[in-house]
What we know:
Layout: E1 4-9, H1 13-22, E2 28-34, E3 38-40, H2 45-49, E4 59-61, H3 62-65, E5 72-76, E6 79-83, E7 88-91, E8 94-97, E9 100-103, E10 107-109, H4 127-146, H5 150-156, E11 158-162, H6 166-182, E12 196-200, H7 212-224, E13 227-230, E14 235-239, E15 242-245, E16 248-251, E17 254-257, E18 261-263, E19 280-281, E20 287-288, E21 291-296, E22 301-302, H8 317-335, E23 350-355, E24 358-363, E25 366-370, H9 371-384, H10 388-404, H11 419-491
Parallel strand pairs: 1-2, 1-9, 2-5, 9-21, 11-12, 11-17, 12-13, 19-22
Antiparallel strand pairs: 3-4, 6-7, 7-8, 10-18, 14-15, 15-16, 20-21, 23-24, 24-25
Amino acid sequence: xxxxxxxxxxxxxxxLNAAKHLGNKEGVHVTLIDRRNHHLFQPLLYQVAxxxxxxxxxxxxxxxxxxxxxxxxxxxxxxxxxxxxxxKVTAGFGAVPYDYLIxxxxxxxxxxxxxxxxxxxxxxxxxxxxxxxxxxxxxxxxMAERTHDRELQKEYLTFxxxxxxPTGVEMAGAIGxxxxxxxxxxxxxxxxxxxxIILVEGASRILNAFDSELSMKAARGLEKLGVTIxxxxxxxxxxxxxxxxGEETVRACTxxxxxxxxxxxxxxxLGVPLDSAGRVSVEGDLSIPxxxxxxxxxxxxxFEHNTPDGNALPGLAPVAIQMxxxxxxxxxxxxxxxxxxxxQYRDKGIMATIGRADAIVQVGKIRFGGMxxxxxxxxxxxxxxxxxxxxxxxxxxxxxxxxxxSRGARLVTSRNWKSEKRFELxxxxxxxxxxxxxxxxxxNAGKNGTKQTTRAKKTAKVMRKSAVRKKGLRKxxxxxxxxxxxxxxxxx
Length: 492
């Protein structure tokens, strides 16, 4: 009997766990296709962006993870289309046939129709974006150190994070922690503790997925780190020199985006029903309606069958992991002639870290925060990391950071390897910001100058009228005096 060909698109939590569960199993041959050669532990990506960890601490080559499974092949490429009729996927290197297809392509940023904002407000979904955020944050402090313009320095030390979910909260807390505890002893001409951090959330509170008491606790923890929280506030524009929130403009060198996500573009090319967010609506066994041999998992899937609260499952790592393992089990059951089982999610809870020794955890009706929650957060994330080496490195790095209050990955790097372009590109964003900031200030100064000129002209006009009036009065008085003298002479 020929082996069933299983093609997995995406090496994230769902795809990788499906491949591992199918590894070295009889009756199946697996091909995993990903556009990157590494599996990324996204829950800790913000720590790379804020210089707490190095990229290699949270990323592992997919080939090394799956090297012990003889029936698993790994291909580097970007899948562009899926042909349901002929049962094949097409990537940049050619077509790959399948008997079972697992789509676990993840999600990208959503700027809600304003993709032009991405240049000024990068999101956090990849190592490239994490290192770019790290570069912008550290460069802001470097530029603030060397400038003598106090207004410009204030703008350099202003950070705006758009989105009050776990990612936005964790980034805001990390910047506050770094500015208060890490950078203070490294700079001479500025006080990093004067850093202004603004967390913007459109809803009435941050961390809406959590209980309201935990949300308030997180808000108090952020405020202790110097974070200002703006709720019920919506961003209306992002420019090179800042962000517009409602009618108010906040001048800031660094704006970070954590406000929304959208599924991979491949979902829109499938020709199947999608929800309002662009996710593929799936059956109870995670297959696409009308295509029982095609499964959609993780952030790409809209699953609302037998969920704990009746809503679609969120895009969390535990959800993706359970989905990947379940689909792999169903494929093996079908290969052995058994029937499929419906997917049932087991809620593992949600958690978020605010800062050093402070976090919140919610598991069902169990809710707690503080030091114990932070230790729980550390343990869970260490256990989910792929690879023993990564776990040990991260544990050592966290312990060292906790004891010394230092961050060992504060490197400003450029993505360009050419020497003549490297520094030009590294400073391009800063130069754009400075030019835009200067132009905006000159424009405001010009408006103020015009107002002052107009006011001066009005004042001068009034003074001229007054002078003319006084001159006329003097002439009248002189004529009256002359008439009186003439009358006196006639009397004499």
